[in-house]
Structure formats: structure tokens, C-alpha cells
Write a structure and sequence with these properties.
The chain has seven helices and six strands; from the N terminus they run ααββααββαβαβα. By secondary structure, the chain is an alpha/beta fold. Helix 6 links the parallel strand 5 and strand 6.
């Protein structure tokens, strides 16, 4: 509202139970329309989150503890829109990344990707996201910026 931008939501789960379920969901008009709109965006705003056993994505029930431990074992340090990446900012090959219903991460050169995130618990994940080229801009607190 503050920047007079239109926003679009993807109603539904962050992750499907199977890849086949994801294929079916992505055929739904609301998903097709929003994903098509995302391809023509001028700017995207999102947050980066860390991944550990206290991460909101686990605590809030989007993933299980078993999945969190698997992600950590594979080197995951953070996530953007449910896309998990390692310390170098590379997407990891975990099943959750293949069942994610959100916009898929890809290095953007056609529009700005602005992250709004901060705090000491996000230093590693923010550093990895920057290293991976996922962010063209960052809005953060002074401590994290330093």
C-alpha cells in the first residue's frame, strides 16, 4: 500500500505432498495467473529466513523436523519463498524444492529483487543469498548491514 503496488497471493500450501500434486495445483487458474504475472514484474519484495530447528518454517508447521534435519544435513542455511539454499547461495537438491508452490528462484536481470530482512539469526542466510545473486537490493538493520 505504501508504494502503491498491486500485490498478488498464491492461496494454498507452501509445499505439496507430491510432485504430481504440485503439477495438478499449478494447472489451477489462480496459480497460472499469478505465476504469469510474476514473470512480468518490475520488482519483487521478499524476506530471507535461516534454517535451523527453531526456524519459523519448522515451528509454524510448514515442514517437519525430519525435513529440517535433512535440509541441514544437505547444507541448507536459508530459504526464500520456500526455496532452500546452501552457504554459497546455491539451491539444494531436496525434495521440498521440487514440491514448492511459490515462485521459483532464478537469477533475475529483468527486474529488481528486494529483500527486507535482518537480525543476527539471519546473517548467514543473508550472506548466502547475496553470494548466490538472489538479491539486487537489501533493506535491513544497521547491525546486519555491518
Amino acid at each position: 500500500d505504501k508504494i502503491n503496488a498491486e500485490r498478488f497471493y498464491l492461496p494454498g500450501p507452501v509445499f505439496t505432498n507430491s510432485r504430481e500434486e504440485l503439477r495438478k495445483l499449478l494447472k489451477q487458474p489462480i496459480y497460472r495467473n499469478v505465476l504469469k504475472i510474476s514473470e512480468t514484474a518490475d520488482v519483487a519484495f521478499f524476506a530471507v529466513a535461516g534454517i535451523d530447528l527453531d526456524a519459523p518454517i519448522l515451528v509454524d508447521g510448514f515442514i517437519t523436523e525430519v525435513e529440517a534435519r535433512e535440509l541441514l544435513k544437505q547444507g541448507a542455511v536459508g530459504e526464500i519463498l520456500g526455496n532452500f539454499f546452501d552457504a554459497e547461495g546455491k539451491l539444494i537438491d531436496h525434495e521440498l524444492n521440487h514440491r514448492n508452490t511459490s515462485v521459483k528462484l532464478k537469477n533475475q536481470t529483468t527486474f529488481q529483487t528486494i529483500c527486507i530482512s535482518g537480525g543476527s539469526t539471519k546473517h548467514q542466510s543473508l550472506s548466502a543469498a547475496l553470494h548466490g545473486g538472489w538479491l539486487s537490493g537489501l533493506i535491513t538493520d544497521e547491525h546486519t548491514a555491518n
